[in-house]
Write a structure and sequence with these properties.
Length: 275
């Protein structure tokens, strides 16, 4: 965002008026809520009628910050918050989660490989983007950090307290109120989408992205699911096609891999579809 002295218009700017408003005489009138500048009035901004404005703000803030950083494309990593790192697998709540811990390492390695490429564009392309939380998300941000590059974390306010993982680049760590706007930011710059084993949140993100691609509302990109055994067990993809609820060609939107190297190879060999 522009510094104050770079503004091209001749009008007095909002920062000046905010500072001036803080020095006004203390009277019954200036203490009244009605007198507050609308854009500094939190009670006003949180009113039900202001929801459209809050939606717009959540869309604009990350967009402007990423534009200012020159980020042109991202590599999205969806995946379960509960999947432990291999060294913590003994504390997993189920044996299945413990067995899935090796995908933490694959996510970490994949993010490191993609970030090494990102550095060649000075962080403009192939920037790792996760949900900013623990599990697979932490692995993605950790891999980017180990490669010496930046990564994005799109956190969301949840009923239980949860801080972003410590590997997200601090000035690319965003917090959302609206799931819908958060999911838009996941996909607006997506050059590839990877999905690791996960639960409701992971599946919500996965199916919304697949629906956008299937319906032509989003350009087709590499869509890579890590863990074929997991995904074929929890979702009967072939049954959907056989039932006719999706077309056989829709199955071609998805690639299944076991390793980071396989995922990188798919991205390397990707041929964008003709418009």
């Amino acid at each position: 965002m522009k510094e104050l002295d770079e503004r091209s218009h001749p009008f007095r700017d909002s920062h000046q008026d905010v500072a001036a408003a803080q020095t006004t005489p203390d009277t019954a009138q200036t203490r009244a809520p009605a007198y507050r500048l609308a854009f500094t009035d939190t009670e006003f901004l949180l009113r039900e009628e202001l929801r459209p404005v809050r939606l717009q703000l959540e869309l604009l803030k990350p967009q402007m910050i990423m534009d200012a950083r020159g980020i042109r494309s991202t590599v999205v990593m969806f995946g379960g918050a509960r999947i432990p790192s291999p060294e913590r697998r003994d504390g997993a709540r189920t044996p299945v989660l413990a067995a899935l811990s090796h995908y933490y390492d694959e996510a970490r390695r994949f993010a490191r490989l993609m970030t090494e490429r990102s550095l060649k564009s000075y962080g403009a392309e192939d920037v790792i983007c996760t949900g900013g939380g623990p599990g697979v998300m932490e692995a993605g941000n950790l891999g980017a950090h180990e490669a010496g590059g930046a990564s994005i974390g799109l956190s969301i306010v949840l009923p239980h307290e949860q801080a972003p993982n410590s590997y997200v680049t601090p000035d690319l760590c965003f917090n959302f109120h609206y799931f819908a706007i958060r999911k838009m930011h996941f996909l607006m710059r997506a050059k590839a989408v990877t999905v690791f084993p996960g639960g409701f949140g992971t599946m919500d993100e996965m199916f919304e992205a697949l629906t956008l691609i299937q319906t032509g509302r989003m350009t087709r990109v590499p869509f890579i699911l890590f863990g074929p055994e997991f995904w074929h067990k929890v979702i009967d993809w072939q049954a959907l096609a056989e039932a006719g609820t999706i077309g056989p060609e829709d199955l071609e939107l998805i690639s299944f891999v076991e390793s980071a190297d396989e995922a990188v190879e798919i991205i390397d060999n990707w041929i964008p579809p003709c418009p």
